[in-house]
Automatic annotation (TrEMBL), chains A, B:
This is Arginine biosynthesis bifunctional protein ArgJ. It is an enzyme of class 2 (transferase). Belongs to the ArgJ family. Its EC number is 2.3.1.35, 2.3.1.1. It catalyses: L-glutamate + acetyl-CoA = N-acetyl-L-glutamate + CoA + H(+); N(2)-acetyl-L-ornithine + L-glutamate = N-acetyl-L-glutamate + L-ornithine. Heterotetramer of two alpha and two beta chains. It is found in: Cytoplasm. It comes from Motiliproteus coralliicola. The record marks 116-117 as: Involved in the stabilization of negative charge on the oxyanion by the formation of the oxyanion hole. GO terms for cellular component: cytoplasm. The record marks 189-190 as: Cleavage. It comes from the Bacteria. Pfam families: ArgJ. GO terms for molecular function: L-glutamate N-acetyltransferase activity; L-glutamate N-acetyltransferase activity, acting on acetyl-L-ornithine as donor.
Amino acid sequence: MAVGPATLPTFEPISGFRLGTASAGIKTPGRLDLVVMELSETASVAGVFTRNAFCAAPVTLSKKHLAAGQPRYLLTNTGNANAGTGAEGMADASGCCAKLAELVGMKPEQVLPFSTGVIGEKLPVERIYAALPAAVEALSENGWEDAASGILTTDTRPKGASCSLELNGQAVCISGISKGAGMIRPNMATMLAYVATDAKVEQADLQALLSEVAERTFNRVTIDGDTSTNDSCMLVATGASGVACAPGHPEWDQFAEAVESVLRELAQAIVRDGEGATKFVSIEVNGALDSAEALKVAYAIAHSPLVKTALFASDPNWGRILAAVGYAGVEQLDLEALKIFLGDVCIVENGGRAADYTEEQGQAVMNQEDILIRVELARGEVSETVWTTDLSKDYVTINADYRS
Amino acid sequence: MAVGPATLPTFEPISGFRLGTASAGIKTPGRLDLVVMELSETASVAGVFTRNAFCAAPVTLSKKHLAAGQPRYLLTNTGNANAGTGAEGMADASGCCAKLAELVGMKPEQVLPFSTGVIGEKLPVERIYAALPAAVEALSENGWEDAASGILTTDTRPKGASCSLELNGQAVCISGISKGAGMIRPNMATMLAYVATDAKVEQADLQALLSEVAERTFNRVTIDGDTSTNDSCMLVATGASGVACAPGHPEWDQFAEAVESVLRELAQAIVRDGEGATKFVSIEVNGALDSAEALKVAYAIAHSPLVKTALFASDPNWGRILAAVGYAGVEQLDLEALKIFLGDVCIVENGGRAADYTEEQGQAVMNQEDILIRVELARGEVSETVWTTDLSKDYVTINADYRS
C-alpha cells in the first residue's frame, strides 16, 4: 500500500552528474540493486548521516572519505545494509571502494559507499565486484530513473523530485531520488537520498545548506520511530551550469528554497510509501515556547500506536490524540487554552470535546487519505510540523512475515 | 490472545476491606461494570496516579479526596473513562461520589472515584446511580473475584495476586487486583490496581512504600507506550490484623518485599494480557551509568515496532534490537564492549554479530512465550528491567476495529 499517485517526475539531467545502475543479485537475482554515481571534478559534495550509535560500516567510511576531500563516486547497494557486521563489514565496504576506484582509475577514498537492506549479514562482495563494470558502463546523465529503482528495499515505488529555476536570468536544475519505507525516524538524515544540482556552490556553503534543510525535511518524517543504522543524504553541486550561488547573494534564498522543496518532496514521498501506509498525516504544532516542546507533542502523536491504528481505521477517536498530547511531557500545559483540530474541525477545547464537534465532522476528515492534525498549544510563537503514516495490519504483516 | 495461564489466585480476604460488584449497563448490558470497595475506619490509604496532563476528572477528584483525609469508599466504573470531558465530567464524578456517600451515610469527599473505558464520552451517571444500591448490597470480604472482573475493559481475563506472610510470628495478608490491556505505559502508576493488606501501617509510610514500589513494578511495564489518562493504583492497609509495620522495624523489609511481589505480579499480569499479546518480554539492561540511561535503552527496545513485530513473528532478527540500542540516545556508547543477549545466547559483541551465534540458537529462544532480552552496556553498575509484549496483527485489529 502507499498513499497518493506513484508517478516519477521527468528528471532534469544534471550536467556533471552521471548515474549507472546494474543487477548484482545481492538478495534477489535479476533486480537492479547496484548504483554508481559519478561526480565531475569540480563538484562540491555535502552529506548528513544517521546518528544511530550502531551506524553501519559504509556510513563510517563515507563520513571519513567525505572529510578526506574530493569524492568522485557514490556507490550504493541495496539488499544488504552491511550494518552490525563489525571489522569484517568495514573491510568489505573498503573493498568495494577499492574495486570501483581501480575500475575508474581513482583512489579508494574518492569513493563514498552506501548500503541498505537487512542488518547483520555479510555483504556479498564478490557479487558486487562482478557487477561493477556493468554499472560503470551504464553511467549516463539520464540514469536517474533506473537509479531510483536500484536503491529501493521494501519500498513499493521509486521516489524522485526535480525542478529547474532561473537565478539571475540563468537556468539551474536540481534533481534527486530517495528510498525508505520502514525503520524510518531519521535523525540527521533519512535512509538514502541523493540530490544533485548544476549550480556552483562552495562545499562549506553546501554542507551548511544541507544540514539546515535536512533538519526541516528528512528529520521531520517518521514512520515507526525506528532510526536506521544507515541513513544518509547526499547533496552534490556540480557547478556545470556556471551559475554561482552563495549565502548573501540575492538569489541564494531562491536557490535554498528550491533545494528545500526537492528534499521535502523526497522526504514526504518516503512517508507516502511507508510500510503498510494508507494515510499521509501532517502533524502541525503551533504556539509552542520552543522547537523542542513542539516536537515532543508532534512525535508523541506521530508515534502513538493507538492514534496510528485509529488513523488506519479512519476512526475520529480524538480521545487518543488528546491522551498523546497529555503524556508528551510538556510541563504546565494550559488545558483550557489548548486546542486540537482535525483538518479544519476543532475537536478539543476547554479541556474536553469541543462543544460544536460532531462525529460526522470528524469522520469526514478521517475518510481522507491526506490528514492534518493541528495542535494549538497557546504558550508561545514556535511551530513545527512532522509527517507520518498510520499503523495498518499490513505494517505488521510486512515486518513479521519477512526478514527485512 | 494472552500469554501464560489465565488462573486467578485464591484471594486471602482482608479484614476491614469489603468489595461489592454490580452491573450498571454502562457500555454493555448485563456485564459487571461497577465496583464499590469499603474500607474500615482505621484503614490507611495510599495512591499513585497518572502523570498525563489530560488526567481524567475522577483522577483529579480522587487525588483531592485522598488529600482531604479519611477515604472510606473506592468507587470504580468501567466502560467509560470520564476523560476529556471538561467541567461536565468533573460534575459527573462529583455526582457519583455524592450519590454513594448518601447511600452509606458518609461525606462525598470520603469517596474516591475511578473510571476506565472510552475517552471523551459523557459518563452515564443515571445508570451508575441506579446500580449503586446493588453494589453496596453485595459488599463482602470475599468479593475479590467479582471485583477483578468488574474493573476490566479490553482485558481478556481478570488479574489478581494474593499472599500471606508471618511477621514476627503473626499472620498478615495482602491481596490485589488490576486491569489494563492497552494504552499502557504507566507513568507513576498503571491503569487501575487495588491492593489491600490487613497490616497496620501509617499513611505516610504506606504512601512512601507505594510510590517506591510502583516505580519498580507498574512503572516498568509498557504495552504500546501510550500513557493513559486514568492510571491509578491504590494501596490500603486496614490494620485489622493488629500487626503494626513501619520502616525501621525488623519485619518492614519482609512486608515491603511482599507488597512489591504482589504489585509486580499484578503489573506483569497486565503485560501478559496486553492487547494482542503473544509474548511476554523482559528487557534487562545492566552496566548503565544511571537509571535514566538504562531505561532509555530498555524503552527504545520495548517501543520499537520493528523489534515488536519480530517478536510476534518469533524471528531472531537481532539487527533490529541492535538498531534500537543504537538510537536510544546514550552518548558515547562503547560498541566494542557492549553485549546483547537473547535469553542466554549472546547475539551481539565486538560491534556486530557474536562469532559463535547461530540462527538456530536465536530461534530456540524466540520460539518461547517468555523471552528475555538482556543488554550489557559495560559502562557502570546500574540495572533496570522493563516488561512488554510483542506487536501482533491482533493489536491492530483490536484498536482499529473497535472504539476503545
